[in-house]
Amino acid sequence: MSEISVLPLPMRELAEFEEKGTILSWLSSCDHKQIGIMYLLTAVAFFIVGGCEALFMRIQLAIPNNHFLKPETYDQLFTMHGTTMIFLVIVPALLGLSMYLVPLMIGARDVAFPRLNALGFWLLLFGGIFLYTSIFFGNAPDMGWFSYAPLSEKPYSSLPGVDFWALGLFSIGIGTVASGINIIVTILTLRAPGMKMKRLPLFAWMTFVNSFLIVFALPALNAALAMLLIDRGLHARFFTPDAGGSPVMWQHFFWSFGHPEVYIMVLPAFGIISEVVPVFSRQPIFGYGFVAASTVAIALLSFAVWAHHMFAVGLGHSMDIFFALGSMLIAVPTGIKVFNWVFTMWHGAIRYTTAMKFAAAFLIEFTIGGLSGVIFAVVPMDWQLTDTYVIVAHIHYVLFGGTMFALFAGTYYWWPKMTGRLLSERLGTWHFWTTVIGFNATFFVQHMLGFAGMTRRVWTYPDLPHWGLLNMISTVGAFVLAGSTVFLFWNMLWSGKHGRTAGANPWEAWTLEWATSSPPPLYNFAEVPPVHGPRPLWDLEHPDEQDRFLNK
Amino acid sequence: MLDGYPVFTPHSEYARSIASLSFGVLWTALGIFLLVAGLVTYATYKFKAKPGEKTPKPVYGNTKLEIAYTLSFVVILGTISVFSIRAMEASDPPTGEHPDDLLIIAHQWWWEVRYPSAGIITANEIHIPIHHPEQLGFESADVIHDFWVPELGRKMDIIPGIENKSWIAADNPGTYFGACAEYCGQEHAWMRIRVVAQTPEAFSAWEQAQLRVPATPENGEAMEGAKYFQELSCASCHTIRGTDAQARIGPDLTHVASRETLAAGRLDNTPANLAKWLLEPDLVKPGCRMPNLHLPRQQQDSLVAYLETLQ
User: Fold this and answer.
1) Which of B42, B73, B191 to mutate to test the interface with A (most CBs of A within 10 A)?
2) Is residue A508 classed exposed, middle or buried when 0-12, 13-18 and 19+ CB atoms within 10 A define those classes?
3) Bond prior to B109 in cis (omega within 30° of 0)
4) CATH number of the domain bearing residue B16
5) Where are the extended beta strands (E) located within B34-155?
6) Which one of B32, B74, B159 would you mutate to disrupt binding with A, by most A Cβ within 10 Å of its Cβ?
7) Can you list the domains of chain A with their CATH numbers?
8) pLDDT at residue A273, as a whole number
9) Number of structural domains, chain B?
């Protein structure tokens, strides 16, 4: 029993914090679990806002020549929808899960810097709120979520929306970098005895790699935002051509952040899938080494692909080819992952819980998003299809069919850990099927709209062949998709009262977060089980057939 | 079956090389998708836990299989890259130092089209002879725009301070629709363009017609309209050759009646629509730079009568 590490309990401090549950205890919290949950609640709140913005857009686009919305309203809606979903929904949801789970998964009491953790969260939340206060000061930003100069410059956007956007994101950027640093240091220094890096749960691995992306990518955005603010406020000329600046420089800055950002939004989702698929297939991950190493490959390559957002800029063929090859290369480790997850299911005994349903659907939906991504690494196809609805479909297959499906899988998987109660599988199945139908109805037809010549970000459109019908299908799908989330929220409320008690490990899972009660006590673990491999709870239960693989 | 999907119905050598590459890539993608979806579906049925089934024997991986599919991705993506790079040359041949055949100046939210050697200036509508590749030069008057006519070739960004060029050609006579593809502000949606490809004879007839200086009407409503055009603020933004109106802020109206649409594709060019546009530009195209002059009915009718003479 000497292998069981007993962490000394700071009993006196512990007693002070036992009055968990008051509002003040949340607002003043430095506990990684409470902060994680606050991140997740922030994401849920903004998800509802961003979702409503999308529904207004879809109503406007339901029929040709529609006058339901004014163009300036539509432009604010799509700008806020993109900004919200990326910076205030997906990133905080993934950060929240990471903050909640990483210390538990590595057998730690908390993150390395608990107060920095709180700072990161509050910077993000107030950045988001600040962004939305722009509505009361003239207008919400309306220049698109990537804010191309010179449209974002004073002469073309004289209202303060752009300034709110830049300052809000600036704050969010600093907060996110703080969280990235925190996760890196936590994983490097606070792992339980025996948990070598090659025994790290894959979710923690991917979050770890992801944090390096955050730390290196976000500063490029913040630098660009600072220059934009100087341009707008102090009449500099960074991004206008009249005094030697260049609008293309904004694009380089933005996308050298923006493309790693896409991976920041999918790597932790890959981590969720790498936990959920094995547990419900009753198999260890197929090829731990390939899955972990391909994550590192994606992270490195993600800094060499950004100009594939700029093939239509006219950078010249040699530049285009360089970034096209980088983008092709990054498809290799991504493809490896998909096949490893599929083969994890092989020879398993798959339990189709709602979490597993979403994970299996992720494999299919994300593959569509991945393949439509390859299209944009084929430069001539990009010349045709970039800035059309094919791009809109692609980004939603990656971020909704990919990340959101993974987040739903993670919700059903970890909800019992966070709340102590199971969600209803029956409501979960309703949620699952309405999501699959609504999502594909909304976004699959958008590929066809792009092929039909519809460009993105148009507030209305002429009645050309197919356009009206395809847009109507997409709008109906969007409402089905919106309706599907009702099942999720209803399920959450239902589970609070009627959900079965989860117990420590309802799924018979193998990573350390399941070795403590649900929800975990403030100090996480009284004692941490011995760690000999990537599946410590498996080893504990099967002393005779421990994971020899990787256990050297 | 592909009617109405211009990306797949090319009408030039440039667009054709992209379309055939696209078919190859899309069929390959479909194959890979069916493979993954098939494997997931198969596993779903084949490996679903049976009631009371014990945890199966662990499978930790299969390095040979993993290396095999890694290599096959490299081969597939490498092959696509080779075809892709070859199609880049075919779909976007190098442009030369020689003067551009056409100069496209993008404005918020309309297109100015100049034929420098012939001296024609028109708007929102490009005429080209078939089988005669034309080199396009692009300029932006304000923000970033993007020129895209999918049946005829690649899209090209139009960026202030940057001299982009590309080629355009068409095999068959016809009208090809396009639009600004880079979000450029409020009326991005109504910054549409069309390319009218004509037989060489029809094209030179068009050219001759565009070069004619229109006669100023000497009687009736049209004459009244011509007077109003100069007296009201029309002339401070627009040009009509042969008159005092020489401003270059809005589209050149010398042959406005010969065009197919008004307000960059917003309306078909009919006298009734022209009247509507003059009366309430802010309702027809909210956000547009054309001001509402609150014209009395009689001035509006006269202006329409005059502008309709500008064939």
Assistant:
1) B73
2) middle
3) yes
4) 1.10.287.90
5) 102-107, 110-115, 120-123, 125-129, 134-140, 145-148
6) B159
7) 33-541 (1.20.210.10)
8) 98
9) 3
CB proximity B73 to A under 8 Å: yes
Asked if the model's pLDDT at residue A262 lies above 60, the reply is yes
The answer to whether residue A79 scores a pLDDT higher than 60 is yes
A-B Cβ pairs (cutoff 8 Å, strict): 279
State how far the Cα of B311 lies from the Cα of B301, in Å rounded to an integer: 17
Which one-letter DSSP state was computed for residue A503? Answer: -
The tally of CA atoms less than 13 A away on the side-chain side of residue A134 is 23
Does residue B196 sit in the same domain as residue B117? yes
* Measured distance CA(A204)–CA(A218) in Å, rounded: 20
Model pLDDT for residues B9-22, shown as the tens digit of each residue: 999 999 999 999 99
- Global pTM reads 0.95
Tens-digit pLDDT profile for residues A514-539: 999 999 999 999 888 889 888 999 98
CA A109 to chain centre: 25
- In terms of domains, do B107 and B186 share one? yes
What SS3 state is found at A190?
coil
Kindly report, residue by residue over A189-231, the tens digit of the pLDDT. 999 999 999 899 999 999 999 999 999 999 999 999 999 999 9
Residue A20 clears pLDDT 80, i.e. is over it: no
- Domain membership of residue B192 (yes or no) is yes
Same domain flag for B107 and B168: yes
- Residue A403 is classified by DSSP as I
Mean pLDDT is lowest, of A18-22, A243-247, A485-489, for A18-22
Residue A552 has pLDDT above 50, yes or no: no
Mean of pLDDT over chain B: 95
Q: Which residues of chain A lie closer than 8 angstroms to B182, CB-CB? A: 148, 312, 387
Q: Is residue B97 part of a domain?
A: no
- Distance in Å, alpha carbon of A354 to nearest chain B alpha carbon: 13
Beta bridge partners of A22: A20
ipTM of the complex: 0.95
A285-298 average pLDDT score: 94
Rounded Cα distance between A432 and A434, Å, is 6
Do B116 and B203 reside in the same domain of the chain? yes
B185 Cα to chain A: minimum distance (Å): 7
Among candidates A144, A351, A455 on the partner chain, residue whose Cβ is nearest the Cβ of B181: A455
pLDDT of residue B96: 86
Nearest to residue A528, comparing CAs of A6, A109, A112, A102? A6
User: Domain of B75?
Assistant: 2-48+61-91
Tell me the chain B residues in contact with residue A345 when contact means C-beta distances shorter than 8 Å.
40, 43-44, 47
Distance from CA of A409 to the nearest CA of B (A): 16
State the average pLDDT for chain A: 94
Q: Are residues B200 and B106 in the same domain?
A: yes
Q: Would you call B33 an interface residue with chain A, using a CB distance cutoff of 8 Å?
A: yes
What is the CATH classification number for the domain harbouring B234? 2.60.40.420
Q: What is the pLDDT of residues A157-191, one digit of tens each?
A: 999 999 999 999 999 999 999 999 999 999 999 99
d(CA A119, CA A29): 10
**pLDDT, tens digit, for every residue of B278-307?**
999 999 999 999 999 999 999 999 999 999
Based on the fold, state whether residues B125 and B87 are members of the same structural domain.
Answer: no
B190 contacts in chain A (CB < 8 Å): 460
Residue B107, classed as helix, strand or coil, is strand
Q: Residue A288 and residue B53: Cβ atoms within 8 Å?
A: no
pLDDT at A2: 39
Give a yes or no: residue B116 inside a domain: yes
Q: Is there a domain that residue B261 lies in?
A: yes
In this structure, how many other beta carbons lie within 10 angstroms of the beta carbon of residue A257? 23
List chain A residues with CB under 8 Å of B39. Answer: 342
Nearest CA-CA distance, residue B215 and chain A, Å: 35
